[in-house]
Input
Amino acid sequence: MKVLHLAANLTEDIAINLVNCSILFVVIGRKDIFMSKQITTAVWGTAPWSSELLTLDGDVGRGRASADARDSLVDKEQELFYELLNSQAITTHNNGQLSWPDYLRPIAKLADGFEGDPDTGSVTRWFDTNTFYRQPVISGELSLRDELAWSALIAGELSDNYELTLLSPFAFSELSGSRGTDPQEKLQHVVGLYSQLFGQLESAGVGKVLLFEPYAPYHQVGVFGAEVLSKTIDQLAEEHPSIDISLYLGYGDPSDIARVLAENKFLDGIGWDIAKTNGQFTVPELSQKRFIAGLVDSSNTHIDQDSGLVDMAEDLVVQINSEEITLTHSVELEHVPPAYAYKKVEQLGRLASNFAQGGTK
Output
């Protein structure tokens, strides 16, 4: 009996050691994968305004405060956000674009061909959120009025980390009204305007632009719509080759659109809201593009546990064949109060630090 007990104990010890060796092998193997990939971070879109700034902006509209006072507070909050981005070593960002009231009006105010005053356009709900935008109306061919129009769109100073966020021309066209132009003409007018703007950005030394595309996933435009979107990117990239163009898909299932756009040879990167899809979507072949993973849920004030996000990110890193993976937030940070937006940016910083050490928690 003693011999039998001894044999049983030896077998159990061997089994435990084999399991431990297997775990060690998996951890080391995963670390090798993490260390072989470039893990970066990005903050894009418009950052939130404080309650003080929102109140002041309302007072400006009612004639109770000066625009200069509001602009001064915008600059102050812009600087605070910029300091946050630097403290978390965010790889690419747009400085927060706090001076942008929405994604369409700042561009519409710089161009001829829009009907009326863009600041008095129809107030329109931004998809299914509690935010709104002023809808511009396109009445003909669009053209920038000023050779320095680009400077009105840049928040803060340009740097190697700077990546301007623009609504995609496809989404801009679909979200605009029109007068006397059919949908195809309207889109071509918008692409022409974007080409002029890209030319100015190129001359100014802006090397990266992230196109935000919420319309196509939200409305499920399918393969045909995705191909139209892809052709607009082709045109911009061919005319302005020194600008790296990336695309971020938001507000819906990216499946069909992502599969089409993943094959676009001009895109530097592509990504979507991982928080919304819960990673339940097979990523297409992306070996020559960076993958932009909207991992940190910025649609609400809930702060996820770092450990859960690390698990999800590790699975993504293992399955995605892209050499560069950019971790970011799921939607625009403006949908949460500044205090929570700051926490979500800090979480991005912690995640990046984790992967820089090999991806183990």
In short: The longest strand covers residues 137-144. Residues 1-10, 14-29 have pLDDT under 50 and may be disordered.
